[in-house]
Amino acid sequence: MVLDTQQKVRRLVVKVGTSTLTRETGSLNLLNMERLARVLSDLEGMGYQVVLVSSGAIGIGTKKLRLMERPTELKMKQAAAAVGQCMMMHVYDKFFAEYNRTVAQILLTGEDVDAPVRSEHLHNTFESLLELGVIPIVNENDSVSSAEIETGQCKVLGDNDTLSAIVARLCDADLLVLLSDIDGLYDADPRTHPEARLIHHVEEITPQLRAMAGGAGTWRGTGGMATKLNAAQLCLEAGIDMVIANGSRIEALYEIVNGADIGTRFSGGR
Ligand SMILES: Nc1ncnc2c1ncn2[C@@H]1O[C@H](COP(=O)(O)OP(=O)(O)O)[C@@H](O)[C@H]1O
Ligand SMILES: N[C@@H](CCC(=O)OP(=O)(O)O)C(=O)O
Known about the structure:
Layout lengths: L10 E6 L1 H4 L8 H16 L3 E6 L2 H8 L9 H25 L4 E6 L1 H5 L1 H16 L3 E6 L1 H10 L8 H11 L4 E6 L20 E2 L4 H6 L11 H15 L2 E6 L6 H4 L7 E3 L4
Parallel strand pairs: 1-2, 1-5, 2-4, 3-4, 5-7, 6-8
Antiparallel strand pairs: 7-8
Helix pairs in contact: 2-4, 3-4, 4-7, 8-10
The structure holds adenosine-5'-diphosphate (ADP) and the ligand N[C@@H](CCC(=O)OP(=O)(O)O)C(=O)O.
The site of adenosine-5'-diphosphate (ADP) has 23 residues, from helix 1 and helix 10.
């Protein structure tokens, strides 16, 4: 089934989670990263303006530093993020360059998006990059800002699901796609409820829906479905469609931008 999308998608934000970018061992999932670069480059060539929000800095840094497990101590997390962000951008730059695309790194903190003047500058930077045909790659500036995450003092950031919705709003995007390690939102966490059923379409974030959304599924994920619903709420308020889909089939993005019924689509009543 293809949904009747009233407005054609022109500007697209894609968020990819650590679970899609890394393997269970913590190593980079080079196949997925290459596919992502290829499909996003192709979509850009087809006339879409594309922003990528990429997690992965802490997970990738954990592996590169040969730490036994993802750190829990704040300063170690921040150190791992500093190392992992560098490696992740190096790999993206290489893969996107294969398809003759230029990428840009944007690292954000809660203060950057909260303060009106800073957020206006950010908006202008995104506009300029997109006009130039550059693909911005965004992450939270974890080495600086995870203090806010840990203390819970930051109102808006702390996980990249929420960050991607804020970025979609900042860029006036038409669609946000969250690529996860699962097909979409189910009526219970399928890891603990094998009989859970996929929800195809959501028009409103209700308390019942929030009760269905659990936390992260693996050591590599952050937030699980709970933060994805926060992102959906921010998108619905701004009239931006949001889709949760499985990052193991990145090619599905071609159909998703055309409104195909893949994963879970959050859109206002039409
Ligand atoms: N109702 C639900 N429907 C689907 N997944 C759920 C639900 N509740 C919790 N989850 C968990 O959310 C996980 C995806 O989020 P997360 O681990 O943060 O990964 P990502 O890196 O993609 O953000 C799934 O693997 C699943 O275990
Ligand atoms: N900013 C962090 C990721 C935070 C996050 O939300 O992670 P994920 O659940 O994998 O999207 C990092 O780059 O490691």
